[in-house]
Queue: 2 jobs
Job 1
Amino acid sequence: MKLAINQHATRINDNSRYIFGREEFAVNLKNIFTNTDGGFVLAIDATWGEGKTSFIHQLIHDLKCSDKLIPIYYDAFSNDFSSDTFLSIGATISYEVENHFQKNGLKTKNTKQIEHLKSVTKKTAMELVKLGTNLAVKSLTAGMVDSSDLEKFAGNAFNSAAFGTLELDINKKFEAYENSKDSIQYYVKALEGVCAENEKVVFFVDELDRCRPDFAVEVLEKIKHLFHAKNVIFVISYNKTQLSRIISNVYGVDTEDSLKYLEKFIHIEANLPTLDNEYQKNSYELLFNNFISEFNIPLSSDELQLNMLQEMFISLCSDKHLKMNGREIERAFSYVSFCFASLPQSKGRELFKFFLPAAMIKIKNRKQFEIIKKGSFNSLSVDSNKWMYDFFKQYYSDSLVQNASNVYYVKGLEEACAIVSIFKLPTEAESVDKI
């Protein structure tokens, strides 16, 4: 059993099944990428947990079937250790472009162009080292800049006291600045040259609203240097509200000005389509199976019991009950795996059907969790909680103890809630205080 899974798990479906009925949106985007000339920047906006990353990974999987589109994924959160975003972006592009042509059968012409792109990337890296004395280039450029080259240059730079001291030679710094601009232009031309047969690079930037604030701004500032490349399309996935707050904090401006700042980079914006009710059942069913598999939860092989658990899970996720998004569901399963692992496996299996609703309700609504954690349900509850009485009566009829005509008790749920209560997310303390 796993206690945690990769939050960036791709969960690719080979049959191009998009959860929450987003196939049409994906087809629209693919047509835009294919039918337009020149580069542009598209933003996909959605709130936390709505499935931006999952959608992008599925779209990238489908775009890879095209010979003319080269999709590239850049995770800003995973790369924010870098002090030079341009280099990490350039290295990612070079690596993925080479992979694309290798998979599709490298031609001699492609080989030469890719080697030229690597060479220009290296030269650009060296010029940026001169400008910023960034000695971490080797790791950021996937090994394309040899460490001996860096050491030789850095040693000369510091020995001559040309950078970072009062003896700084302004002419050299000016020259380095001009050279870095020229190098970026050469890089853009080299990137265009790789795609000599009208291929397009579709560069997806994800997790900008989760990474280090200054790094998020740096990513935007650096990719703007590539906006003029005629064969590069940028797709920026973000929560615009959150990213605008980040920009406000970094630059000390108000929300209106931070949104104007974003407008400098974005040509057009699209909202990620919300859940289509027609696909609700199939989507939640897919998520249930994925998370059971990814967390490696050792459930009973009883098919009837598994079907009941899945049906119960889908009902809880639905709009009429908890209305949970993908990230909330993932956190609920993480709770369940910790609870399961804390018990003998036989006891864990016994309580699993109670762990799951307990964890889901705790994640979504702490007030409702406080109501159910003693295992008692009253049919006279206020309207907002009445559904829980009906829900547990429907799915746990074999576990009910009737205490009165309108009150019943579920011992297994009380046990499960007691164990679930041991664990909490770092953000939960504040919400508990408000109850």
Job 2
Amino acid sequence: MEGSYGSEWPAEEKVKRREMVAPEARYIFVHSFPDSGTNEMTALLGTGKTSNTITGARATIVGFVQYRFTIEEDLPVVYVYELQLEPSVQGKGLGRFLMQLIELIACKNSMGAVVLTVQKANFSAMNFYIGKLR
């Protein structure tokens, strides 16, 4: 996370830690199951506990999205706090899939919008949100 915030990270770290453990925080974790015979990744809704496959292989978390249901300017919204993916799974459509899932969650819960904030210095995130999600 530090890379995204640059020199602002020391000030942001405490805020981020509080946001991540807040009771209203919701997560979708993406797990990769090694030795499953495919390169398949499975998104699991959960509490962050490591899952096991049928074969007992240990799952590795390769990404997550953190969001909350909140009110912004009198409008109920899903606010995306974090979307992070390991470099090995970036560029494969997983980020787009997670954002589509967030949009579906917002729609099913009658929310007015999906909102997020991106650091101006985070060019790859800006390109993703502006270029790939329109």
